[in-house]
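Bug #77: duplicate submission created two jobs. Keeping one. Sequence:
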Amino acid sequence: MSAQASTSKPEPNPTPLALSDAELDKLLSREASAFQRDVEVERILKAFKLNPYDILDISETSTPEEIKRRYRQLSLFIHPDKCAHAKAPEAFDLLKKAESELSDTVKRADMDAVILEARVTLLREFVPPLPVSTLDSDPALTALGKEWKARLRAKSKELLIEEEVRRRKAIKMNLANEGLEAKKKEDEVNQRKRKAEDDKNWEENREQRVDSWRSFAKGGKKKKTKIQVLG
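Kept job's structure:
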């Protein structure tokens, strides 16, 4: 064996952990997808809870079909079975609640009425005021860019909070009234119970009263002594 042969080093074997370009791209894509899911969960959790449009991140002019499609996309994307985020179930429930509210024609009409009020209020703040029929495509609004949508969301949030405060006060007042009514009924029941108890005691003591009266009457009947007249 030659000296050259004895000093040669064997070629290193490829590491089994080495990834091909395709496998690396797939891994990075999966990690990016997981990151995007986490980002979406955080967005939903930070969204204004009283505005289902904000939770679904969809326009107020969306059709029922568009709302359902958007809900399906997001619910599949952040589904707890696919998303490792600890609060994915909470975000998933918020999506479901938002879709349910917008699928209810009455609730959506109430929501749209508040948003319309916010829109009209903002249009009247322009100098000079803009007509309430002004479309989003109007140059006065398009010139504001994203600021117009931001203003509308902010004003809608303000009005929705006011509406929620009024709703909670009404509930509190109703509960207070119900409490007063309940106390009134309880007092009436207690009064009837006391009267029934008094009547019962009266009847139970009737014989005793009769006997007492008879004894009194009998003892009062004393023989009158004759007065002797002198003389």
